[in-house]
Write a structure and sequence with these properties.
- The protein is an alpha/beta fold.
- The chain has 2 domains: 82 residues, no CATH class; 265 residues, Rossmann fold (3-Layer(aba) Sandwich), CATH 3.40.50.
- The protein is 53% helix and 12% strand.
- The protein has 14 helices and 7 strands.
- The strands form 2 sheets. The chain has a 5-stranded parallel β-sheet with strand order 5-4-3-6-7.
- Strand 1 and strand 2 form a beta hairpin.
- The radius of gyration is 32 Å and the shape is elongated.
Length: 386
């Protein structure tokens, strides 16, 4: 009996508080309504629909008031700053200009000496060395990664067959043909045979860009036919090798990998996670596993006028039909995806370049042959050097 009496008393108290709360609202006495709402909440009873709505309304009003106070404070601070130091128009414009890494003379000299770079003429460099501090560690890590991968795969019954067909496919390069890169071990064979060499050339490419003062702190890269990501590895190793020469400012790298073969992308990312995980490089990856030949049907996927650099590394076809199609597609991508002040980076073996246009390369041949006549047929683009 006592238990039931307590329940009845509790319900009557709850009903009384609700009536007092409702009456305060009807009278427009919000202070009294707040008091009764607080008592209802302290009692632990579930709020009614009206009480819940009122509580949410009061909370929203409080947030609005706090935001108004914050805006007022910021306006006051801005006014004080403007009155104490008028902002020059050029300074204001510079706030929105992309910041670039300032070339460091000692670092440039170090890389030049390490790679034994000799400028034979304005369009021809000779490199016969390597930067050991960075590349020795990189090569050792890659060898360890590949050893683990081959150890994991060699127990497969058809491992030898898979490896042979992948090697045969990549050997098409030596025969002047285009590999398919679509076999099960194509990515592993590529990492074994060609990855280091292509990262080496990507490193030098970014070094040239850095030397010219064109490397932004916040950089957006579209890598067409990206493979395992040699371009982003080259940039990462360049920044890594600059340690000790100058403090690297906060950087953000957005890397868009456009590659038809998903296994190439995956193996590149797999090694990146093992090697670059502790390098503190602020890099955002986006992977697009499709063919750039289908660009006409997927223009919405590629951000418009977003990229500082569009790179094509060795994706120049031996097959005339594929080469002609690529030369029609590349400029469209450049036109739509590149920033107005952006750059296109083309990396291609010199023998393949001249052979593609049935030309013979001598030391005195002009650099601007072939590429600017086909890929860069649009007036917006021109070749600065090869």
């Amino acid at each position: 009996m006592i238990k039931w009496m307590r329940i009845i008393i509790k319900r009557m108290q709850r009903w009384s508080r609700s009536c007092q709360f409702r009456h305060a609202l009807e009278q427009g006495n919000f202070r009294q309504a707040d008091k009764w709402l607080q008592e209802i909440q302290n009692s632990g009873e579930k709020l009614s629909c009206l009480e819940t709505m009122y509580r949410d309304r009061q909370h929203t009003q409080q947030l609005c008031q706090e935001q108004k106070q914050e805006i007022s404070t910021l306006k006051r601070k801005l006014s004080e700053f403007q009155s104490s130091r008028p902002l020059d128009i050029q300074e204001f414009a510079n706030l929105f200009e992309p910041q670039h890494l300032t070339p460091n003379a000692q670092f440039i000299e170090y890389v030049t000496q390490s790679f034994k770079i000799i400028e034979l003429d304005p369009n021809l460099w000779q490199c016969t060395g390597i930067e050991p501090r960075t590349f020795n560690d990189f090569e050792a890590s890659l060898a360890e990664f590949l050893q683990q991968e081959y150890t994991r795969l060699e127990n497969r019954p058809n491992f030898d067959e898979l490896l042979t067909e992948s090697i045969h496919d990549l050997n098409q390069l030596k025969l002047g043909k285009d590999p398919k890169y679509n076999f099960q071990l194509s990515a592993h064979v590529y990492l074994t045979r060609y990855f280091l060499e292509n990262v080496y050339s990507a490193y030098l490419t970014w070094f040239l860009i850095y030397q010219l003062g064109l490397l932004p702190n916040d950089i957006n890269i579209l890598d067409i036919a990206a493979g395992p990501g040699t371009i982003i590895y080259g940039l990462a190793l360049l920044l890594q090798s600059s340690n000790g020469f100058f403090p690297t400012p906060p950087m953000h790298i957005s890397y868009y990998s456009w590659e038809q073969q998903k296994d190439l992308q995956y193996r590149g990312l797999q090694f990146w996670r093992k090697y670059m995980a502790n390098k503190n490089l602020n890099t955002y990856f986006r992977f697009d596993t499709s063919s750039f030949f289908d660009y006409a049907h997927q223009t919405a996927k590629i951000p418009k006028h977003f990229f500082d650099f569009i790179t094509i590394s060795h994706c120049f076809f031996a097959d005339p039909h594929l080469r002609n199609n690529s030369e029609k597609t590349y400029p469209k991508i450049f036109h739509n995806a590149l920033k107005p002040q952006g750059y296109v980076i083309l990396t291609i073996q010199d023998k393949k370049l001249w052979k593609s246009y049935d030309l013979y390369r001598s030391q005195r041949s002009p650099a601007r042959v072939g590429c600017d006549r086909s890929i860069f047929r649009y007036s917006r683009f021109k070749v600065s050097s090869i």
